[in-house]
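Researcher: Re-running this chain for the archive, since the previous output was lost when a drive failed. Same request as before.
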Amino acid sequence: MTTIARRHALAFALSAGALLAFGCTRTADDKKAGPDPSGSGSGAAAPKGGALTVKGSDTMVILGQKWAEVYMKTNPGTSIQVTGGGSGTGIAALINGSTDLCNASRPMSDKELAQVKEKRGVDAVETKVALDALAIYVSDKSKIDAIDLETLGKVYLGQITNWKDLGGDDHKITVYGRENNSGTYGYFKEHILKNKDFAPEVQTLSGTSAVVNAVKGDEFGIGYGGIAYASGIRLLKVKKTPTDAAIEPKLETATDGSYPISRFLFIYTAGAPSGAAKAYLDWIVSDVGQKVVSDVGYFPLPKK
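Model: Regenerated structure tokens:
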């Protein structure tokens, strides 16, 4: 097993332990400037007693669980409950006031920002908390090494259906994706499909781990998701255009932007965070919190 694989396996094991340790539950699965790492900004009321709820992105749930676990060990007066369900679920909870923090693997839309303002009376505040290279998953047995964005889009639009058209075997491609409440679904639709609809043949699954497991057991499958979940599968190199170089998803290429589908991961609050929420977010973007990002398998924020 490679170092990366061991790291991902450890991340999964730790997140599973976190579920038991502090009640985090995992469901099936630069609109506004956020607070800077120094923690400036105040406005959103902090929960009493240091209790925080965090809802949203399935892509981020293993990261959110690990952050909470590590933070609570050194801050025993704070209780943090983390649940997944998708970025859309977390954003809806932020709008209706049923979560303190919202994990999101995509930026909030203008409509969602307006809804927060209308329902909560304050602006939604965005904090970038990590970097992800959106990974394209294939089986270890796949003969394909790289794919360009245009061709990837054609696969998910149903315009390419056989691996032989990609240089592989003469066999139908089994296409796996996420449900429409997923921020990763939204990011993929916007950036890969140019907001066109996914083909009806795409098998939608409720979480990133479900996509990974499906591809792992399907020699002719393809899927997409956060890089931290990539264990027991292979990641395709990605070309921005058919004539560009194929870029491997890794820290250096995500940080310098050469990997064409790298993205930030976000936490949103209703109003500028204060109290326990502010302290937690300041810790997340600190060197200690960013080390957790690396340990889980995502990439820390670029140094300014």
